[in-house]
Amino acid sequence: MSLRPLLALLVVGACLIVGQPAARGSSAVEWLDRYAVGQFDAVVEELSGDVDLADLLQQLRRDGPTWIDAKGPGERERRQLVAATFALEAARAGQWREWKWIQMQPPFDGIQLLNVLYWRPPPLLIEWACAMFRADETPRPVERWWQLAALAVAQRSEDPQFLVGDTKIGRGVGAGEIMNTQDEIKHLDHVEPRFPKERRLTLAQGIARDRDWPEDATQVYGALWNDPDVGGEAMMRLGGMQLRQGRLPDALKSLDRAETLTRDPYVVFLARYFKAQVYERQKNADRAEVAYRGAVAAVPHAQSATVALAAIVFRHGRRAEAQGLVRDMLAADPQPLDPWRAFVHADDRFWPRHIARLRAEISR
């Protein structure tokens, strides 16, 4: 075992021995009480600070069911939603500090064993809440919104393994392949059957496979090619994948198709941005400029397309125009969400909408 993982394990062990609380002066039950009466932002601010998420998870597992049932059957569903949404907010607050460990094992009898996966608290918080919903055979309408919010958090982690399992199967220890596949979560496997008509879950299957299993991703995207809700994004992501593979004519066809299926500025921007990159690879600067201008028109002042457009304009000798593009981009207030920077986080762009709806349900 290397020094860094060993030190990390010692620190975790020491914390467990000492029994540190979830946060200074707070307990899971106290937070649930405050979250239930609408102190959402204050609770989330505290969750973003010095919080022992492992202890918080332990407290929720131990005390959460009692808290949910404390007000009787008439309040149970609402309090379950409070607990599940609180857990989701805690997972999102801590997911960029910790998500999972993939630990290399020492060789055994001259054989290099595969890695071992250890989930950290944020994904386990999501699964704790998800399991509560799954205890009811028939999902309630509000669960759909919770599951879409959970998908947003999961995709923000940039970890397809949580959603679909080990995407490094067969690639060996150096690629991160794990041996303890029995510990996989595969979140989408138990959510999709509850909402078989929710196409964002289907699209998520493709996104999770995009990098490591492109053939599977192509099948998912292709199955959604005409879907009125997610077809545009599916074709945009297919075009982006084909661009990475160097299949430029195929990419242009997919990206053109994407624009016919949606008016979502995020999707339109990326379809045009990727088309511009195709044209740049084809040494067609004029068409690339047109495509970048289209992307900027879809999301004004977005940094990725604006800088790329300014670079082309500058190379064409129009320096004042290039300087104006960059100046206006830097002066934009508020700064727009750049779809290219948000591309890898997929549905995280819907998080404000989903969490607002869940909080509204709690406050009813």
Describe this structure in words.
Helix 5 runs antiparallel to helix 19. The chain has a two-stranded antiparallel sheet with strand order 1-2. It has 19 helices and 2 strands. 65% of the residues lie in helices and 2% in strands. Mean pLDDT is 92; it is low at 1-25. It has helices at residues 3-18, 28-36, 40-47, 53-69, 73-94, 121-134, 141-156, 160-164, 187-191, 199-209, 214-223, 231-244, 248-261, 265-281, 285-298, 303-315, 319-331, 339-342, 351-363; strands spanning 100-103, 116-119.
Order of helices and strands: HHHHHEEHHHHHHHHHHHHHH
Low-confidence stretches: 1-25
Q: Estimate percent helicity.
A: 55-70%
Into which percentage range does the β-strand content fall?
Answer: under 5%
**How large, in whole angstroms, is the Cα Rg?**
23 Å
Structural class: mainly alpha
Number of strands: 2
Largest sheet: 2 strands, antiparallel
Task: Report mean pLDDT, rounded to a whole number.
Answer: 92
Strand order of the largest sheet: 1-2
Globally, the shape reads: globular
How is the quaternary structure best described? single chain
* Tally of alpha and pi helices: 19
Q: Give the distance, in angstroms, between the N- and C-terminal Cα atoms.
A: 52 Å
Summarize the entry for a quick read.
This protein is mostly helical and 364 residues long. The protein is built from 19 helices and two strands. The protein has a two-stranded antiparallel ribbon with strand order 1-2.
How are the SSEs placed, and which strands pair?
Elements: H1 3-18, H2 28-36, H3 40-47, H4 53-69, H5 73-94, E1 100-103, E2 116-119, H6 121-134, H7 141-156, H8 160-164, H9 187-191, H10 199-209, H11 214-223, H12 231-244, H13 248-261, H14 265-281, H15 285-298, H16 303-315, H17 319-331, H18 339-342, H19 351-363
Antiparallel strand pairs: 1-2
Helix pairs in contact: 2-5, 4-5, 4-6, 5-6, 5-7, 5-19, 6-7, 7-19, 10-11, 11-12, 12-13, 12-14, 13-14, 14-15, 15-16, 16-17
